[in-house]
Amino acid sequence: xxxxxxxxxxxxxxxxxxxxxxxxxxxxxxxxxxxxxxxxxxxxxxxxxxxxxxxxxxxxxxxxxxxxxxxxxxxxxxxxxxxxxxxxxxxxxxxxxxxxxxxxxxxxxxxxxxxxxxxxxxxxxxxxxxxxxxxxxxxxxxxxxxxxxxxxxxxxxxxxxxxxxxxxxxxxxxxxxxxxxxxxxxxxxxxxxxxxxxxxxxxxxxxxxxxxxxxxxxxxxxxxxxxxxxxxxxxxxxxxxxxxxxxxxxxxxxxxxxxxxxxxxxxxxxxxxxxxxxx
Length: 279
Description:
The protein has 279 residues and is mostly helical. The protein has helices at residues 2-29, 46-52, 55-88, 95-107, 110-128, 136-161, 164-172, 177-206, 209-214, 222-230, 236-278. The protein has a domain at 56-221: Orthogonal Bundle (MetI-like fold), CATH 1.10.3720.10. It starts with a helix and ends with a helix.
């Protein structure tokens, strides 16, 4: 048992080191004073100053945030509706087909999804004259398509765990279906909805493959900008940009974890108080 514990701890440490040492190295070298990313030239913050003065980076960041906010919001609405439908309505005509269409982007390679989206937009432009050009709209539609599946999966899993007796009790007490939805169902699955929105926002903000197929001139997102710069060689300003992205995502995950933990604790406390009141 002692040898097994030592082996497991060693493998755990090796796994964490394999994952996080490259990230820590990138953060350290983002403060490198040398123009060569792999040669230490002393501590300096000039690359962060240069980064904040780069208008191209700011334009790409604003575009990425706009696309991610719109895509995540619409994908959350559609994914929540799809998740509730799949969880609550187990028998209806076309359910298998509907479920397959919803889950397809999850198992399909991103390259195939990007090519199919590109072909679709080209055909639509030839047939109906829309879209006139690829850019903000096409990227947003593509991101909604593949982000929605993640929201659907999370919401459906939460709905399957939810107690239907609470909804049935509300209807027995005179609540209409839409009142049950807004007063009972949505508050119960709100942590799942928030998790789905955050995941969709992160995936949209981070996407490179699909965006490279459906974007056009003058609509370069931040991940595409980083990718175009990395192809010419990693420079300290890229390390600085990546470091800011890692810190931002880390703070977002930490804040989301705190919010979800507090929401779940509040929900459990309210359930205990309700059961005590009934007793």
